[in-house]
Amino acid sequence: MTNKLFILIILIFIVQNLRAQNELRFSRAKLMGQNDPELYSKSNGLIPQVAEAFEKMKIAALKAGFDIKIVSAYRSYDRQTAIWNRKFKANKSKGLSPEQNIEKIIEYSTLPGTSRHHWGTDIDIIDGFKPRKGDLLLTEKFHGQGPYAPLKVWLDKNAAKFGFVRPYTNDFERGGFKYEPWHYSYAPLAIPMLKSYLELDLSSLLIPETLEGREHISPAFLKKYIRENVLGISSSLK
Ligand SMILES: [Zn+2]
What we know:
Structural class: alpha+beta
CATH architecture: 2-Layer Sandwich
Radius of gyration: 20 Å
Helix content: 40-55%
Strand content: 5-15%
Largest sheet: 4 strands, antiparallel
Low-confidence stretches: none
Distance between the termini: 47 Å
CATH class: Alpha Beta
Bound molecules: zinc ion
Number of strands: 4
Strand order of the largest sheet: 1-2-4-3
């Protein structure tokens, strides 16, 4: 075999390998929550690399007196559709118009296919040492005399050291989803995943047949939603 041929074969091998890796990491199914949930079941609902970083943060937090517990990690496309539909029906029964209904849902919840929880990089967390009462993920529980306020102070200082950053900050200029002190993204993977995600043709992917209120979601709404909600995140995660 000539040297040139050998180098060519090696190059083809490397390119194929890189392509396979890229597809494996950021396939459309993975970005849209349509992966097999089994893939995450052994790692806390996270991509193994994220689970590893989370474990390190958890150990450090334990030394400081906090038991970081994951309330929500990986969430599938179908699960997100079910959450949307449940909220839509509940709001409808309270008399909200379809437009008001959708605006209400997207204060905190996403359209299926647009949740950062689809990626296996994002977590909602609380302090497991504190008693669980009622709704856990409320802003007031992370501030003032709230049970998770001390954990939030610790996270503000330490989470970024482990790669975890809050997308939905308390910044009125951010727009989009409301402030979520409990939600963290693993930046080293979430940043490139968002980049891949934005390369998808989202306009054709986001409205499942079974979505309540789907006839009120126009292309213009979707465009605004992607700009304000999907991209309405901390600049450190873009
Ligand atoms: Zn969340």
